Amino acid sequence: MTDNLKRLQDTEDVRWQFQALAVMDGVIKEVENPRQVILLLHGFNERGRRIFRRLLPYLPSDATIIAPNGPFPLPRQKEDRLDFGYAWYFFDKHQQKYLINQDLPKSWLKGLLQQKGLDSIPLTIIGFSQGGYLAPLLGYDLPQTEVVIGIGCEFRPHLVTSNPNFKLIAIHGGKDEIIAPQSALNDIEKLREKGIHCAWNLLPDTGHEINSQVGIVIQEILEQHGKRSL
Fold first, then answer.
1. Which of 54, 85, 178, 219 could bridge to 58 as Cys pair (CB 3.0-4.6 Å)?
2. Could you read off the pLDDT tens digit of each residue along the chain, which spans 230 residues?
3. CATH number for the 20-229 domain, one of 2.60.40.1640, 3.40.50.360, 3.40.50.1820, 3.40.50.300?
4. Buried b (16+ CB within 10 A) or exposed e, 66-98
């Protein structure tokens, strides 16, 4: 028994990688002959419907808008039911390593756009919090990406490693209690030192949230981008 326990303690965890059937839920607003696709990536323990509902009034009417749930359900016990939020990946901040990194959600989201026949239409990716961390990494893998907007997140210099072919834009609340705005700005300055341009929009009275101020800034960004694309 003691020898078995010792062998167990000396055994290291291993990881197997394989392809499996993927199933994603979410919401979509489709238009005929869309000029662009807007992909909305929700925050940790949220759902696509939440970011969809918050931003829909500020998004262009000629765009197909998709807000999927992340691949990993997180149960939330309510008084009368079991509810679920979702995650895109899992990072252990204490050990500073990924338990599950961004590769799986990137693969699934690419497959989703291909399945819908939307993989050759100009793409805007808008992510909030955890979805914002994922947004530029997905943008690198999708050549049709023109704009990436991260809300209440950081663009990590060790992940955003080269000058992207898309516009990289940050929106951050001055009262963000989850991700300090100065920390996010410090990372952007490091990107700029590497020659990677990133626009910074600070909303002094906004916290870690998607409110009307965030929506208006996004609307202005997309309108200006649309004018330059004419």
1. 219
2. 556 555 556 667 787 888 778 889 999 999 999 999 999 999 999 999 999 999 999 999 999 999 999 999 999 888 888 889 999 999 888 888 888 899 999 999 999 999 999 999 999 999 999 999 999 999 999 999 999 999 999 999 999 999 999 999 999 999 999 999 999 999 999 999 999 999 999 999 999 999 999 999 999 999 998 776 64
3. 3.40.50.1820
4. bbbbbbbeeeeeeeeeeeebbbbbebeeeeeee
